[in-house]
Automatic annotation (TrEMBL):
MF terms (GO), sorted A to Z: zinc ion binding
Domain called SWIM-type: residue spans: 50-89
Database matches in PROSITE patterns: ZF_SWIM
Secretion signal span: none
Organism for this UniProt entry: Dreissena polymorpha (Zebra mussel)
Region feature (Disordered): 117-141
Species classification: Eukaryota, Metazoa, Spiralia, Lophotrochozoa, Mollusca
Protein name, UniProt field: SWIM-type domain-containing protein
């Protein structure tokens, strides 16, 4: 598990990340098909949030390639990254993970506006329809 590997032997980091998840401070969570997690985690005592990016190894081996956070602890392990990892383990749903089989739609050409006159052109000489027979039109056939 990524979270347990990240917080291993860091009791304070473990507790702070658990508290963040339990108090719903993970505001956004998204994982793409390249195994990159992007999250927004609210700071503990401030009315601000930090953007977190976590790159996981391509194999599902519990190893984190790299992680960044906007908090002052940037190059050190922070509880915002740990909270995002724990949230991903405990609460993330399939809707938080981008489906790799969904392709972006190709841009469609603009739709042409059709007027009523174009849809229903007026009768042309020599043209008759079934509706015209009741109005005195003659059969041209």
């Amino acid at each position: 598990m990524y979270w347990s590997n990240y917080v291993e032997s860091h009791v304070k980091l473990s507790r702070k990340s658990e508290a963040s998840v339990e108090s719903d401070r993970v505001l956004k969570f998204f994982m793409d098909e390249l195994r990159v997690i992007r999250a927004s985690v609210q700071a503990s005592m401030k009315n601000t949030s930090y953007n977190v990016t976590i790159h996981l190894e391509p194999e599902d081996n519990g190893v984190i390639q790299s992680s960044t956070c906007q908090c002052p602890m940037r190059e050190f392990k922070c509880h915002h990254v740990a909270a995002a990892l724990l949230f991903g383990y405990k609460r993330a749903s399939k809707t938080d993970i981008k489906c790799s089989w969904i392709k972006r739609p190709k841009s469609a050409p603009p739709k042409k506006t059709v007027t009523m006159a174009e849809m229903y052109p007026p009768n042309q000489p020599g043209y008759s329809s079934a509706l015209d027979y009741g109005r005195g039109a003659t059969d041209t056939g």
